[in-house]
Amino acid sequence: MPSMLPNYHVGIVVADLRQAMTELSKIGFEWHAPVRNDSDVHTDGAPRTITPWMAYSKQGPPYLELLEQMPDTIWAETGLHHLGVWADDVVAESERLTAAGIPLLNAQHDNNTGAPTRYHQTFDGVRFELMDIGRTGPGLATYLSGAADNYLNGIADKYFDELAAGR
What we know:
Blueprint: E1 4-14, H1 17-25, E2 35-36, E3 39-43, E4 46-50, E5 53-56, E6 63-68, E7 79-87, H2 90-99, E8 104-110, E9 116-121, E10 127-132, H3 133-145, H4 149-164
Parallel strand pairs: 1-6, 7-10
Antiparallel strand pairs: 1-7, 2-5, 3-4, 3-8, 5-6, 8-9, 9-10
């Protein structure tokens, strides 16, 4: 019995987060503030910590999730990347997908919430991101409310300004 809930976002990997937000704003999308998420990632048994920049659209669900490209990860290529779905039990659902012949592509552990995340990819290249609704859902709901957008935009603006200045 499937425990995946309907997709709540479509993940898109972009080369430049601010540029993508600006470009998609021209066709009507509005964005919550960019945020970073500190996660431990395991791909092919090699653990590493990543802190990707991402932003969600204000329109949704399903939301658009823009993820800044990260070399040498599953987020190395730009374009449509995955369907984000909720799961009550990410590990059990991941095992179910693996048993059904849909292999595990990547496993993550969110260092802030402790929530597991798993990516699986079908034979035809469709990727699913399994997200823990119990541990990730409340924080995402707060983020999507926009309550912290002004504060988060200040942090993001400083980072991207320093990056552009070469510091």
